[in-house]
C-alpha cells in the first residue's frame, strides 16, 4: 500500500505537539510556580501574619513577626537549663533541639541503648523532682520524632511544679495555676492529646516573679 502522507508531515506534527506541550509547561510554571505561591503568601500575610512568619514571641511573651525581636517560636521546642525552669522532653536532634538536625533517635523499643537511656532519664527526672521513678511520665524520658517538640504533657508539667516553685520562691499553687491555664486540649476535641507549650509556660513565670 502506498504511503500518501506529505513529506515532512511527521516532523511538523512533532514540532506542533512539542510547542503545545511547551506552552502548557510555561503556563503551569507561571500559575503554580509564581502566581499561586504569591497569592498564598499574600493571603497569609494579610490574615495570619504572626503564624505565617513562624509564630515568634519576644522575651515578654508578646507576639512578634521579626526574628530580631524574638527569643523563640511556640512551634519549635528549645532547651531550658536550670532548676528554675520547666524542662522540655528530651531531644535527639543533634546535641538537642538543633533545628538543623531535626530527627528522632530511630532506635526501636527493644534497642538496648534506648532502654538504658530511658532508664537513666527516668532515674534522673525522679531524683530532680523528688518522686518515685514510676511517677515519671513517658514524655519526660522519650524524645519526639522531630526532636523539636515544643510541648509536654500536663502530667509532666505538673510534676515539675514543686521544683520550679521552690527554686523561684513563689507559691506552688500559683505555678500550678499557670500550668492549668496554659494547658491546651485536643484539637477539635478529638485530635491529639492535651499539652502545654514549654516556652509559653516559662515566659508566664515572669508574671509570678514581678
Any chance you could write out the topology, listing elements then pairs?
Layout: H1 9-47, H2 49-52, E1 56-57, E2 63-64, E3 72-73, H3 112-129, E4 151-152, H4 154-168, H5 172-182, E5 183-184, E6 195-197, H6 198-204, H7 206-209
Antiparallel strand pairs: 1-2, 1-3, 4-6, 5-6
Helix pairs in contact: 4-5
Question: How would you characterize this protein structure?
Answer:
GO terms for molecular function: ATP binding; P-type potassium transmembrane transporter activity. By secondary structure, the protein is mainly α. It contains seven helices and six strands, in the order ααβββαβααββαα. α4 (154-168) runs antiparallel to α5.
Amino acid at each position: 500500500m502506498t504511503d500518501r502522507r506529505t513529506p515532512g508531515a511527521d516532523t511538523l506534527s512533532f514540532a506542533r505537539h512539542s510547542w503545545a506541550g511547551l506552552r502548557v509547561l510555561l503556563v503551569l510554571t507561571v500559575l503554580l510556580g509564581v502566581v499561586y505561591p504569591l497569592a498564598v503568601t499574600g493571603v497569609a500575610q494579610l490574615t495570619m501574619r504572626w503564624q505565617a512568619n513562624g509564630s515568634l514571641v519576644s522575651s515578654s511573651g508578646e507576639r512578634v513577626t521579626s526574628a530580631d525581636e524574638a527569643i523563640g517560636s511556640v512551634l519549635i521546642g528549645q532547651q531550658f537549663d536550670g532548676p528554675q525552669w520547666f524542662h522540655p522532653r528530651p531531644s535527639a536532634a543533634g546535641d538537642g533541639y538543633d533545628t538543623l538536625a531535626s530527627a528522632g533517635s530511630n532506635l526501636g523499643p527493644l534497642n538496648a541503648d534506648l532502654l538504658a537511656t530511658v532508664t537513666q532519664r527516668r532515674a534522673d527526672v525522679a531524683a530532680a523532682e523528688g518522686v518515685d521513678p514510676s511517677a515519671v511520665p513517658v514524655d519526660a524520658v522519650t524524645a519526639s520524632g522531630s526532636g523539636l517538640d515544643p510541648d509536654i504533657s500536663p502530667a509532666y508539667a505538673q510534676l515539675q511544679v514543686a521544683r520550679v516553685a521552690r527554686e523561684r520562691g513563689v507559691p506552688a499553687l500559683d505555678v500550678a495555676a499557670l500550668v492549668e491555664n496554659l494547658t491546651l486540649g485536643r484539637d477539635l476535641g478529638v485530635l491529639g492529646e492535651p499539652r502545654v507549650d514549654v516556652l509559653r509556660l516559662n515566659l508566664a513565670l515572669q508574671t509570678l516573679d514581678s
